[in-house]
Design goal:
Elements (H helix, E strand, L loop, with lengths): L11 H24 L3 H13 L2 E2 H8 L3 H13 L3 E5 L7 E5 L1 H22 L4 H16 L7
Antiparallel strand pairs: 1-3, 2-3
Helix pairs in contact: 1-5, 2-4, 2-5, 3-4
Length: 149
């Protein structure tokens, strides 16, 4: 029997998750089919493509991904020669990550696909809706977690 006091389909975190999944499925197929990448791997690749040399910690802070997931993605991308790890001379616990030529080519290819994909996705919305959606999502993504218990 449905709960008349709670509509899951209208619960904002649920809606955001549903929208994220629905909007990313077709793009996910592209990076998976072309490069055999998982979601965390393309996110690491894109952070390095956009920002240049970073550490895994830098990526974790920017992408809000757990360090274990980043570590696995970095390992796979390094094995497949998409990224290069260079140990910091001053602190051997730190590795600086950069795209290789192969990684740069994959990033450039996927960036082009991502830009076209985003244009097609946003074409479903009126220009004012696009602006409002971006503004709301930026506001929500910057919101600090709160203790609700």
């Amino acid at each position: 029997m449905p709960d008349p006091e709670f509509e899951l389909e209208n619960f904002l975190p649920y809606l955001l998750n549903q929208a994220a999944e629905a909007s990313s499925l077709a793009f996910q197929q592209v990076y998976k089919k072309r490069y055999g990448m998982l979601r965390t791997e393309w996110r690491v690749l894109f952070h390095l493509g956009v920002y240049g040399q970073l550490t895994a910690s830098d990526i974790g802070a920017r992408a809000r991904m757990h360090k274990t997931k980043i570590s696995r993605a970095v390992h796979r991308l390094t094995e497949r020669r998409f990224i290069e790890r260079v140990t910091d001379k001053a602190d051997r616990r730190v590795a600086h990550l950069t795209l290789t030529a192969q990684g740069r080519a994959a990033y450039d290819d996927l960036r082009s696909v991502a830009q076209t994909y985003e244009r097609n996705l946003l074409a479903q919305l009126a220009p004012e809706e696009v602006g409002a959606l971006r503004q709301a999502l930026l506001k929500l993504s910057g919101a600090a977690p709160q203790d609700f218990t």
